[in-house]
Amino acid sequence: MANQQPSSGNPRVDVAYRRKKSAEEMRYQIVSFTLMIFLTIVAFVAVGYEGFSGWFTVPFILLLAVVQVIFQLYYFMHMSHKGHEAPALFLYSGVVVGAVTILAFTTIIWW
Amino acid sequence: MSTYAQKKGFGAVLWDYLTTVDHKKIAILYLIAGGFFFILGGLEALFIRIQLAVPNNDFVSAGFYNEILTMHGTTMIFLAAMPLVFAFMNAVMPLQIGARDVAFPFLNSLGFWLFFFGGVFLNLSWFLGGAPDAGWTSYASLAMASETHGIDFYALGLQISGAGTLIGGINFLVTIVNMRAPGMTYMRMPMFTWATFVTSALILFAFPPLTVGLFLLIFDRMFGSNFFDVANGGNTIIWEHLFWIFGHPEVYILILPAFGIFSEIFAIFSRKRLFGYSSMVFATVLIGFLGFMVWAHHMFTTGLGPIANAIFAVATMAIAVPTGIKIFNWMFTMWGGSIKFTTPMLWAVAFIPSFVAGGVTGVMLASAAADYQYHDSYFVVAHFHYVIVGGVVFALFAGAHLYWPKMFGTMLNETLGKVTFWLFLIGFHLTFFIQHFLGLMGMPRRIFTFLPGQGLETGNLISSIGAIFMAIATIVLLINVIMTQVKNEKVGNDPWGDGRTLEWAIASPPPFYNFKQLPLVRGLDAYWLEKMEGKNGMTPAEPLGDIHMPNNSFIPFVISLGLFIAAFGAMYRAETSWGLLVLILGMAVTLGAMFVRSIKDDHGFHIHKEDLMDDDNDKGVKA
């Protein structure tokens, strides 16, 4: 369940169908990989360009980081496929708990 | 390995339990270890009540009282209640979902041994220079000032046993997500399994903050960092937040399995389907979710400001709603049922008013403005003992009676069980009810003695007398256990006669592979459905085949032992020459054992179909 492949692994399943699925999968991978490289370059440029102040650069590259994490999870770690509902649920629950903790620390302890 | 039971000597049995990866045997280990620590924590409670029985008492000194009080809380929460809850989860949950074992039997064993060595380490502090003395919450301002090694024992011991708990929780999650029998959808899972699921999720999210907090404490005390050192720019409030972000979900980690056990009991002994099953599931999940939004109600007087206090007060009161849903569902389950007042049922019925009383004082404490009055008084002590004893401990007693036949194949004596119940119930209310009023009269918590002539004498004496009743009740239970095991009268599948869920469909205790053929689940209360259609067992969902089983392993014990040794090294590193050496040695043992585990392939073994066919009469699922 956790490692569901685009093909079922069953030799009786139509080979042509599996090839098509794999090709589609590969396309997604390459597109998202290119995008991630592009976002990384953008991040470096943003830091390197002297016209931006830190108040713009830091939130901007954090935003890019979040986008990259989503790409990573959904395209390279296959969360976009079926059968990943439970991991997704726990991932997002963890994000919520972590976010609440950070919110509390930044609002009522430190500042 | 043969499927036939063989008569074994003591050494062989001991070795079997040291190396076992079978969830049923690990459950028994959790039960024994948890029971031992429960008695230890109970003795500490008795010492507290003896000291406070009369004014100006000098039964123990002030410093020693702090140690007893700290260890009572720490032991009861981490080393008694949690492992006992884990005992029932291990014993029952895999059977309820129709699985042959948990998803990771090796990790299950590792989780137990980590907990066990952590607990032993913590309690060795009594013999090695003094126990921790900063309260079970170990607030950093006190903990940093403590001069003995007590706090080091606390931080290291809980770190080790906490890792075990985390491993156990993840294991249960994976088991429930992946190993349900054919037909066992999420909304057909028994309530106890649901409770286990939500509890495990809470463990997954709540224990990391504790781990972080404990590491900060360890670094500050043993390795010279300054997280909590105000003079160097640290902040002790960080500990309070980290502790309670863990600590509040922790109390739900304890109470949700208790709710699960009671849900089973109400349905079984009212001989009715649980009322409002889906709302029960919803309420359980909602309690789990809200449990993470309320931790700061333990810190209203820390100076969070009115906005934060108001938010956390409202969030806390919101938890009363799903809890109320559950209470009404239990009452409607009994309504119109054909009720049998067995020992577990008595505990369950007594639980409702006791727990509601604790819940009501909880709402009182949740009002931030009023909390300034109640804070750090005996009112708080009364409140949390009403929910934890009236909820969790009642459930553990009830669960012990209910599941004893499933775990050991024998029935605990009902008469003695009822004696235990009445003694404990009377003792419990005698001890803790009066403490509400002691608190309102101004008695602060955690004081080691009080003066005469302040109106506190009678209340404290009554409270101490109640504690004696609870002690006697526990002794009666122990006598009951010994008598039952000596007599050793074996019982069948469904000794209560009204079992509803899958665990009652197989032998007591179940064979080591649980289900010969995985059962087909056709609805909620799967076994009850089959019984109502006149069948005497579950319909198998698969043909009889070879069963793949894991091999026993001694490695979990060694991994845990290594950390136990390393903890001594970490603690004595600064002041002795051998400390660092021991630390490295211990880590080497642990990492070496993990390395062996990684490179040595262990494929387990198969029970062959032919062996399974031989003992068709009394084991496994009847086809």
UniProtKB/TrEMBL annotation, chain A:
Q: Which domain of life is it from?
A: Bacteria
Keywords linked to the UniProt accession = Cell membrane, Membrane, Oxidoreductase, Transmembrane, Transmembrane helix
Q: What is its main location?
A: membrane
Protein name, entry field: Cytochrome c oxidase subunit IVB
A molecular function GO annotation: oxidoreductase activity
This protein's GO cellular component annotations are: plasma membrane
Q: Where are the transmembrane segments?
A: 28-49, 55-77, 89-110
Spell out the InterPro entries in the cross-references.
Cyt_c_oxidase_su4_bacillaceae, Cyt_c_oxidase_su4_prok
Q: Which Pfam families match?
A: COX4_pro
The EC code for this enzyme is: 1.9.3.1
The places in or outside the cell where this protein is found are: Cell membrane
- How is it placed in the membrane, per its record? Multi-pass membrane protein
Automatic annotation (TrEMBL), chain B:
Note the superkingdom of the native organism.
Bacteria
NCBIfam families, from UniProt?
A: CtaD_CoxA
TM ranges are 27-48, 68-89, 110-129, 153-179, 191-219, 251-269, 274-295, 307-325, 346-370, 382-404, 416-441, 461-483, 554-572, 578-596
What protein family is recorded? Belongs to the heme-copper respiratory oxidase family.
What GO MF annotations does this protein's record show? cytochrome-c oxidase activity; heme binding; metal ion binding; oxidoreductase activity
Kindly indicate whether the keyword Ligase belongs to this entry. Answer: no
What keyword terms does UniProt attach to this protein? Cell membrane, Copper, Electron transport, Heme, Iron, Membrane, Metal-binding, Oxidoreductase, Respiratory chain, Translocase, Transmembrane, Transmembrane helix, Transport
Gene label: ctaD
Q: In which pathway does it act?
A: Energy metabolism; oxidative phosphorylation
State which Enzyme Commission number(s) the record gives.
7.1.1.9
Cell compartment(s), UniProt: Cell membrane
The primary location reported for this protein is membrane
Q: Report the protein's function.
A: Cytochrome c oxidase is the component of the respiratory chain that catalyzes the reduction of oxygen to water. Subunits 1-3 form the functional core of the enzyme complex. CO I is the catalytic subunit of the enzyme. Electrons originating in cytochrome c are transferred via the copper A center of subunit 2 and heme A of subunit 1 to the bimetallic center formed by heme A3 and copper B.
Q: Does the keyword Transit peptide apply?
A: no
What name does UniProt use for this protein?
A: Cytochrome c oxidase subunit 1
Name the membrane topology term. Answer: Multi-pass membrane protein
Reaction(s) catalysed by this chain, per the record, are:
4 Fe(II)-[cytochrome c] + O2 + 8 H(+)(in) = 4 Fe(III)-[cytochrome c] + 2 H2O + 4 H(+)(out)
Domain named Cytochrome oxidase subunit I profile: residues: 9-522
Listed under GO biological process in this entry are:
electron transport coupled proton transport; oxidative phosphorylation; respiratory electron transport chain
Cellular component GO terms, alphabetical: plasma membrane
The record's listing under SUPFAM superfamilies reads: Cytochrome c oxidase subunit I-like
Gene3D superfamilies, from UniProt? Answer: 1.10.287.70, Cytochrome c oxidase-like, subunit I domain
List the InterPro entries. Cyt_c_oxase-like_su1_dom (IPR023616), Cyt_c_oxase-like_su1_sf (IPR036927), Cyt_C_Oxase_1 (IPR000883), Cyt_c_Oxase_su1_BS (IPR023615), Cyt_c_oxidase_su1_bac (IPR014241)
